[in-house]
Queue: 2 jobs
Job 1
Amino acid sequence: MTVLPRGLGRSYGDSALNGGGAVILTERLGRILDLDTDHNSVTCEGGTSLARLLSFLVPRGFFLPVVPGTRFVTVGGALAADVHGKNHHVDGTIGRHVEELTLLTSSGEVLRCSPAENAEAFDATIGGMGLTGVILSARLGILPVETPLVRVVKRRARNLDELLACLEEEERLSRYSVAWIDGLARGPSLGRGVLIRGDHVPLAEMPRGQSPRGALSEGIGPAIPVDAPPFVLGPLSISAFNALYYAAGRDGTSLSGFGSFFFPLDAVGAWNRLYGRRGFVQYQALLPREAAAEGCRRLLEEISRERAASFLAVLKTTGPAGRGLLSFPRPGVTLGLDIPNIGERLRPLARRLDEVLLRLGGRLYLAKDALTDAATFAAMYPRLAEFRAARNRLDPRGRFSSAQARRLGLVEAP
Ligand SMILES: Cc1cc2nc3c(=O)[nH]c(=O)nc-3n(C[C@H](O)[C@H](O)[C@H](O)COP(=O)(O)OP(=O)(O)OC[C@H]3O[C@@H](n4cnc5c(N)ncnc54)[C@H](O)[C@@H]3O)c2cc1C
């Protein structure tokens, strides 16, 4: 029987599923083992959530070097996907900040891996989607911060070219940057949006009367009580939301708690239920910079043609690739789109989006993928053969597997 480690199940597709096999729940592997303030590092077990780590670290004056758009993921899940944040162009993926990890392999051995020790296993595990073994613990480099606040600068752009130019121009002004796109705007306004960039606030800029170590109480907002009926997210309501968001995104500077800046969706409990019973898929594409304008335009046009209104469309820039053999980011621009499940039209739409990516030298993100096929994936990831060879050496009997790994040929079918 095959097995698969699972974190908090926050990957969008089938990467944490293993139909016909077993799943190892890691949530109770959640202890913080050591904080080394002399060397700015933290050691914790693989099932520790980023939420728990941040509530431990921020009051002590530290932040994680890379965080994804939700804190409800585990360290193991974050390393297995080699997650990126709004600072990829500055800090790379989380994998760059892993000093050492311990891996439980299929033979029952616990392997210490780092860029210097068992480096092949390390490179296959960072971004390896749980297919090399269970990440039992990791030591991560951490970032000293003086306050829990972020200075946020917003700038509106009237169309895609303006938004991409804004991102290119302003990414070097801040550690973090991201742009929200109105996925429904068409014609000359296609790709209009708001660039949002941010930096940790130093103590000297802390507003008077606020405690520098406070501001940790940002909780989870009210949950969406039932699956929202389809009309709630019909093109009209999404269009109204997007128009309002665009109008509110006036140019300016403000201070924000770290939670609302880094994890805006965490404030809406069970936000995914907004898409109703039929749900949605995420499509996160990465395009080389020279193809970003054409690629984003084509993807947005295809989706808009199908009237698959995208509620959330997010654009980020990416810098140099990391070490992970299957890591997603490399230099370019990434566009993440929520696509509501439009039934039988969804797969043909995804095929067309994949074709755009393939033609322009782009790729998809495993942690978000639900629909692509093995040939497309292989064409996007030139180091796949290296990954499979490393994995076969670590797990010769093919004990670790997932639904996604079988669909995409990351592992041999049993
Ligand atoms: C709202 C939202 C925003 C997001 N934003 C971003 C973003 O900005 N950037 C980004 O990169 N990603 C982003 N993601 C994706 C998310 O960070 C990844 O899917 C992450 O892997 C989820 O972690 P998890 O603990 O829930 O893992 P799961 O979803 O449970 O598992 C994901 C993969 O990790 C493996 N895995 C889990 N635990 C272990 C372990 N201990 N050892 C070995 N393998 C393990 C699993 O086998 C599986 O293949 C976002 C997801 C959501 C829901």
Job 2
Amino acid sequence: MTKLNLTINGRAYGPVDVRDELSMNDFLREYLGMTGTKFGCGAAQCLSCAVIVDDPDGTSYTSPTCVASAVSFDGKTIRTVEGHAKDGELSALQKAFIAHFAFQCGYCTAGFLNEGQVLLERLAKAPVKRAELETTIAEALDGHICRCTGYIKYHEAVRDVILADSKRYLAANQ
Ligand code: FES
Ligand code: FES
């Protein structure tokens, strides 16, 4: 057993005793009741289980939770799909996903949402040229598997959010 402390969606959790072999996915779903994080392949292949990890240096990235132990997240700050809406208001990305009917069964949606959010935050710090946008989105979402084949809808939804706030996400005069 190991004592686990971490921050999820801005709230501190722990210390809580967990078995060393407990997966992060089971910790979120079974210990905390955060069932928005899904379990798909269980083999770090589909990324339906990905959460956002916020590093102290200000960078963020997504990380699968199915093959990672809960204790490997000790001391980390993460965000899950439950943290996107603020004060009952869906995020711009969540609204765009709905507007595009980007999801069907929804199993992969949290992973795509987290990845899209990481991309938005990265572009806000380092905007890209308009001509590079399609490739940038495709590369960011690459690796997320949607068994309902909603790839184009997800791509379009992310693109809409970026173009709706192009001064923020795109390099000027490009
Ligand atoms: S369930 Fe974790 S990558 Fe597929
Ligand atoms: S919406 Fe069903 S797996 Fe993506």
